Amino acid sequence: MSGMNDLFSIQGKTALVTGGSRGIGFMIASQFLAAGAARVYICARRAEACRAAAAELSATGDCVAVPCDVGTPEGVEELATAIEAREDRLHILVNNAGIAWGEAVETHPIEQIDRVLHVNVRSVFHCTQRLLPLLRAAATVEDPARVINIGSVDGLVIPFWPNYGYSASKAAVHMLTRHLAHALVGDHITVNAIAPGLFPSRMTRVVFDNPEVEEQTVAVIPMRRAGTAEDVGGTAIYLASRAGAYLTGVVIPVAGGVSTIDTTRQVVQ
User: Fold this and answer.
1) What range defines the domain where residue 185 resides?
2) What mean pLDDT comes out for the span 19-40?
3) Which positions ≥6 away from 55 have C-beta within 8 Å?
4) Which of 71, 138, 184, 262 could make an SS bond with 91 (beta carbons 3.0 to 4.6 A apart)?
């Protein structure tokens, strides 16, 4: 059993989870700490929420809040500078920060398309680029540094909702993941993506705040349930552990089977 524990261990590793104050980011940060990560940094735009989440997570392990907006170049620089001041290497980077906007195609604001793409795509590239020195310092042949990008099943199939910029941005994250994986493999840095389906979060509150909508949405999911912290956190731990060390450029749907079905019949126009 100890061998199996070692296979999926992230003991002693330092991680950063962007957008870690809630939702999927918080779930991954909590599972990393439970799995023995030495320290987990989280960032979020809202300083109070970021610090409150870090305080809650610190009941399990060492969690540090770095309030910043990675949707801006200044925010990425602030984040990187804060981590460089405390760490000489970074083993795991989870690019999770993201936003969404849903509205009918006729009235969907163009400025919201731009905003979503800036946060969901540009920040993934910029955070990875800016933190490369710390990732390279942590990387070895036997134990690569890991970049885990959070895409979405909405980037793989037609979404249920009219979130045009979001779905396009997540498809872009999946392609960027493969491209970065190819570019960084020689540096012993793996780059993979998780494509979550329905998970409880602020972004999906329109589903979970309405029991009827929740029931209708879950009914479309082949596994008939939403995802949990263990589902997405376990996948992230796999990608960050020895078990996932030979995997790069892969997009893993964690969506209860949604990626296997034709969603177009359920799409909200």
Assistant:
1) 2-266
2) 97
3) 63, 65
4) 138
